[in-house]
Design a protein that fits this description.
Strand order of the largest sheet: 3-2-1-4-5
Structural class: alpha/beta
Helix content: 40-55%
Number of strands: 14
Low-confidence stretches: none
Strand content: 15-25%
CATH superfamily of the largest domain: Argininosuccinate synthetase, chain A, domain 2
Mean pLDDT: 96
Number of domains: 3
Bound molecules: arginine
């Protein structure tokens, strides 16, 4: 008897993997596992239904709490961003891989499988975590290793009576979790093709957004969002509510060219209303409460952090090191930020903090406390090196 545990989303790739693992790889038993990282309930139900139709043992693992506590909170504090991509999918992969492995261990499985293709990033992310956790189990990636195209997969599914969702939907490759929704593939692979409205589900088109703007207020404590509009809420609730509120105003749509790990440039579409709002608000509060030196240094740390997450290398000890710095930098990131949402745009309109470095008494044009004349002395030295070079003398 040989058993394989498959990371199963219920989409085309992972659905086709089930019969392939039996027929092409000879596994007697396939266990399909969906990890719940906050994807919409309908998707989870669909996945369960599909697994039932495929006649395999099926598990759903609720990892929402861990996702938010161990991954999304650090992501918010790190202002996680890779080339403009807010890392919603990359950040979930190590946790999904870990949960798949846990089931496999319990089931005494011989192998782990995923449905990633050989062109994307997820194969790197899943396998880095799998290999970190086990050297004994085999790792199988049927779509990649059989070099299948989406069309071939659809063909195979039709011929073998494999349940796949409606044709239209299969044109796009969708990935969703609490933080973000991504849409890629099909006609979108042509970077000059404008995304049709039908690909978006979390955000309204600017045409359908309300004419009146909405204002929202977020309170952060040590860099973590804790209140929405004066109401103390769990971060999970804050994200859900913001996805609705900001999605209604069309906030958080991104259409971009992204450099994948392999070096391939890819065209990606994302929707992540809550992520956009929280990142804008958090960055603004940091500008108010961190020193210039902290901000400069932190932006380098943020780039390193985002790069590791993009590559799925959160097992690298550097990741912990970076998180230690980031956590320490957040001690004073306490306060409130107000934002205005309107017709796809988002603007911070006010901020305040008990730890603000901003000092109105000093900076105000109307205050005399700080004697302006003193600036004159400092200016004598400003730019002195280039002047020295040009004039070859010190005055
Ligand atoms: N480009 C993103 C990443 O590498 C998103 C991939 C999501 N996958 C999908 N099938 N839509 O993290």
């Amino acid at each position: 008897m040989s058993k394989v545990v498959l990371a199963f989303s219920g989409g085309l790739d992972t659905t086709v993997c089930v019969p392939l693992l039996k027929e092409e790889y000879g596994y007697n038993e396939v266990v399909a596992v969906t990890v719940d990282v906050g994807q919409p309930k309908t998707g989870l139900k669909e996945a369960e239904k599909t697994a039932k139709k495929l006649g395999v043992e099926y598990h759903q693992v609720n990892a929402k709490k861990e996702f938010v506590e161990d991954y999304i909170k650090p992501l918010i504090k790190a202002n996680g961003d890779y080339e403009g991509y807010l890392l919603g999918h990359a950040i979930a992969r190590p946790l999904i891989a870990e949960k798949i492995y846990e089931v496999a261990k319990k089931e005494k499985a011989d192998a782990l499988a995923h449905g990633c293709t050989g062109k994307g990033n997820d194969q790197f992310r899943f396998e880095a975590t799998f290999k970190h956790l086990t050297q004994e189990m085999d790792i199988i990636a049927p779509i990649r290793d059989m070099n299948l195209t989406r069309e071939e997969e659809i063909d195979y599914a039709r011929k073998n009576d494999i349940p796949i969702t409606t044709e239209g939907k299969e044109e796009w490759s969708i990935d969703e979790n609490l933080w973000s929704r991504s849409i890629e593939g099909g006609k979108l692979e042509n970077p000059s093709f404008e995304p049709p409205e039908e690909v978006f589900e979390w955000t309204n088109s600017p045409k359908k957004t309300p004419d009146e703007p909405s204002k929202i207020k977020i309170r952060f404590e040590e860099g973590e969002p804790v209140c929405l509009n004066n109401k103390e809420l769990d971060l999970i609730e804050i994200i859900k509510k913001l996805n609705q509120k900001a999605g209604k105003h069309g906030v958080g749509r991104v259409d971009m060219i992204e450099d994948r790990i392999l070096g391939l440039k890819a065209r990606e579409n994302y929707e992540h209303p809550a992520a956009t709002v929280l990142q804008e608000a958090h960055k603004d509060l940091e500008n108010l409460t961190l020193t210039r030196n902290q901000l400069n240094f932190k932006s380098n740390i943020e780039n390193e952090w985002s790069d590791l997450v993009y590559k799925g290398l959160v097992v690298d000890p550097l990741f912990e090191d970076l998180n230690s710095f980031i956590n320490s930098s957040q001690k004073n990131v306490n306060g409130e930020v107000k934002l205005k949402l309107h017709k796809g745009s988002i603007k911070v309109i006010s901020r305040k903090s008990e730890n603000a470095i901003y000092n109105q008494n000093l900076v105000s044009f109307d205050e005399k406390k700080l004697d302006q004349k003193h600036a004159k002395g400092a200016i004598k030295f400003h730019g002195i090196q280039s002047r020295n070079l040009k004039n070859k003398k010190g005055d």
